[in-house]
Amino acid sequence: SSGINAEWPLRPGCSTDRTIKVFEVDKNNFKLIQTLSGHEGPVWQLSWMHPMYGNALASCSYDKKVIIWRETDRGQWVKFYTHDIHASSVNSIQWAPPDTGLMLACGSSDGNISVLHGTGDDKFTYRLIEKAHGTGVNAVSWAPSHSGSTTLDPSTKDYDAINKRFASGGGDNLVKIWKFNDEKHEWELEAKLEGHTNWIRDVAWAPDTGFTTSTIASSCQDGKVLIWQCKDVSKGIWDKKRTMHQFNDVVWHLSWSIMGDILAVSGGDNKVSLWKESHKGAWVCISNQDPNQSN
């Protein structure tokens, strides 16, 4: 997963061969422009930094490290920051929305979550959430910088409120919501979502659609995908879960469309399916792709 920006002409890919490959895309043509080496284990995930902070890419690996790569003026990608405080594999990373700030959430098999905070001059500090998930953290996903409950009226006091929250999922079968306390300058557990009966494999917070409801999708080792909704995130009360679908194999990854109305699902069966909620509230499959089958 790379958090691809549709306007960005580069596409990265990560692999168990410990490398990252950066491709230039022209229409449907992919041209390899550079292979990045620096990790000492399989690379699990990639995440683009928002271009307002510069051209940079973060990667995480089984080698317990997070590496931030930056593009130079000559178009070459170089390693410029290594985050190596975790005691086990770093399984998931994601940059926060740009309005939230220059922050990178990192979830590890050691059970902890670290959040890198950019301090300027290419320097970072971090805050650690210890024992976030006792048996390991498998996924992290940021909330939109402005929650659905924030009014769209610029004259109101909460118009400029920044939604500093993210969701995480782990081997304890739980989805957790974390909120940044500006007074204490620390991350606090705001909500614990119970409903899965096996390891959480991914969580995905839907983009802000302008409606008042916030939505999170979570997937599980047992193939179940659940949808969680909250009418007002400031109260931290999430409505009862709904089962979107029960798949026949583990579901590894979830990804929302930019409008937040279509959910892409990929799993152990090597298929990618697209799902959309009907006007009656049921989730229906609108596309099912098997990359092993030619068109």
Q: Quick summary of this structure?
A:
By secondary structure, the chain is mainly beta. 0% of the residues lie in helices and 52% in strands. The strands form 6 sheets. The chain has a 4-stranded antiparallel beta sheet, with no helix packed on it. It has a 4-stranded antiparallel beta sheet with strand order 8-9-10-11, with no helix packed on it.
Write the layout of secondary structure elements.
Elements: E1 10-14, E2 19-26, E3 29-37, E4 43-48, E5 56-61, E6 66-71, E7 77-83, E8 90-95, E9 103-108, E10 113-120, E11 123-129, E12 137-142, E13 165-170, E14 174-181, E15 186-194, E16 200-205, E17 214-220, E18 224-230, E19 242-246, E20 251-256, E21 262-267, E22 272-277, E23 283-289
Antiparallel strand pairs: 1-2, 2-3, 4-5, 5-6, 6-7, 8-9, 9-10, 10-11, 12-13, 13-14, 14-15, 16-17, 17-18, 18-19, 20-21, 21-22, 22-23
Descriptive report:
This protein is an all-beta fold and 295 residues long. The protein has strands at residues 10-14, 19-26, 29-37, 43-48, 56-61, 66-71, 77-83, 90-95, 103-108, 113-120, 123-129, 137-142, 165-170, 174-181, 186-194, 200-205, 214-220, 224-230, 242-246, 251-256, 262-267, 272-277, 283-289. The relative contact order is 0.09.
What is the helical fraction, as a range of percent?
Answer: under 10%
Oligomeric description of these chains: single chain
| N to C succession of SSEs | EEEEEEEEEEEEEEEEEEEEEEE
| Average pLDDT reading | 87
> In which order are the strands of the major sheet placed?
4-5-6-7
Strand content: over 45%
